[in-house]
Amino acid sequence: MTDISGQNRSPFSPRAENRAGAGAGAGAGAAAAGGTALRTLAALMLAPALAVLSVPGKSSADSGLPDPNVILEEVDEIRAPDTDFVFSLEVESRSDDEVDTSALRVRVKDSEKSLVVFSDPPDQAGRVLLSVEDNMWIYIPGTSRPIRISPQQRLSGTVANADVSRVVYSLDYDATAIEADTVDGVDAWRLSLERDSDFAAYGSLTLWVRQDNSHPIKAEFFALSGRLLNTAYYGEYEELLGRERPTVLEVHSAVNTGEVTTMRYYDMAVEVTPDQYFQRSFMTRVR
Q: Per-residue pLDDT tens for 108-163?
């Protein structure tokens, strides 16, 4: 919108001689007052319209586009069946001729707390990853106590710690823009997500979502510098807990060509985990 910061200049010099007499002076004063009143009235009439156009996160009436954060919440409801739930996860990382596989059990509480327990491979069995709000710790059997780690650290292959422990996007990212697009002939919304918390593993995301049912299709993950790090594809939708949900997330590295990490979700259930499980002092006792 145009910044209206200038002032209107009178065509008459302030030093002009007043030759019209008192009557003319009074008429000019009335005209000026009338002009000021009209400008004030126009500003008051225009203010509500400008206010509507400047509301963050809202599209203009003519665009016909939905609120991107509403779409993001619908995506999160598909990926997470509740605020409290559990699931098992198999993470397979492939690079050249090497394949590494990890098995984990994940417990989520109040959406922003999670406990991840490793059961495979044998040298990682018993490891515990705890995240509470923006904090994360790991406990390794045989050590004296849990240590603080970064959500951005790589857990396996191209996957970061936060990719496993945090299931929903809206806790860590704000949807700032939305555009209509197509993916393999399917009508989609393209959402632009910006980092909104210290727990976020990435600087920004671009997320493609089906227009007809809000199923996520694919996502691109970017570093704070803007460099593309990974491209992920959501697939193998299954009916789980009353709704179709993706059970596979395939992540392709844009940094290390040919490196692919596949995350398979199964045994998902709505379950409330006791509060004590999400205390750092309890990590050494988790089995």
A: 999 999 999 999 999 999 999 999 988 999 999 999 899 999 888 877 777 888 88
Higher pLDDT, 221 or 52: 221
Cα 118 from Cα 102, distance rounded (Å): 7
Looking at domain 68-285, what is its CATH homologous superfamily? Lipoprotein localisation LolA/LolB/LppX (2.50.20.10)
Contacts of 213 (CB under 8 A, 6+ apart): 244
Q: What digits encode the pLDDT tens for the residues 58-82? A: 443 456 899 999 999 999 999 999 9
* Domain extents in the chain: 17-56, 68-285
